[in-house]
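Reopening: Metal-dependent phosphohydrolase still failing for me.
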Amino acid sequence: MFTRMDQSTQEEWQHISEQHMPHIFDMPARIMSMLRQLEALSLGFGTNQLHHALQTATMAKRAGAEDEMIILSLLHDVGKVINVPNHGQIAAEILKPYVSNDAYHIIRTHQDFQGEHYYQYMGKPQDLRNQYKNESWFTKAVEFTDEWDQAAFDPDYKVDPLESFETLINTFFAAPHTI
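Support: Ran it again with your exact input. Result attached.
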């Protein structure tokens, strides 16, 4: 194997590509693992972050949302496993190869949309979502944020179990759009 990329060969890159495939196709298991890690994070909220994710996704499902919106609802905060301040961007980058461009932007910007409901308590502008008014995904982002995400902190809400979303996770993360 090479010690510098600029000295590599096609055969070495073929080998590397083959070694990547099992990891790439194991993505559904890693997504489930990350979701389970959210259970240990409450971050001061009245629910842990797994319950919040499940409540958001359950609400979207019960509202008849399309599968992509349900998967976004389930995974919108998964970036908190890595870092809270830019969790939306982290989650968006994780999801990007598996979802539409609109879905990517909804997750990437969801804090700007959610800020309308609480940024006044933090001395921040509440109207950050307005910068996206002309985007094709704006209406869906408002629905996601206002109907499900910001309303999903009820510890008594009867959520669908994580396992009930496993088929959807397996479908979305079976393979990225491009490899």
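DSSP finds nine helices and no strands in the chain. If you still see a failure, please send the error message rather than a screenshot.
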